Amino acid sequence: MKDYADIESSKLPEFQIDSKIPEGPVAEKWTNYKAHQKLVNPANKRHLDIIVVGTGLAGASAASTLGELGFNVLNFCIQDSPRRAHSIAAQGGINAAKDYQNDGDSVYRLFYDTVKGGDFRSREANVYRLAEVSNNIIDQCVAQGVPFAREYGGLLANRSFGGAQVSRTFYAKGQTGQQLLLGAYASLNRQIKKGTVKSYNRREMLDIVMIDGRARGVIMRNLITGELERYAAHAVVLATGGYGRAFFLSTNAMGCNGSAAVQAFKKGAYLANLAFTQIHPTCIPVHGEDQSK
Ligand SMILES: Cc1cc2nc3c(=O)[nH]c(=O)nc-3n(C[C@H](O)[C@H](O)[C@H](O)COP(=O)(O)OP(=O)(O)OC[C@H]3O[C@@H](n4cnc5c(N)ncnc54)[C@H](O)[C@@H]3O)c2cc1C
Question: Going by CA atoms, what residue is nearest to atom 21 of ligand 1?
Answer without folding.
Answer: 87
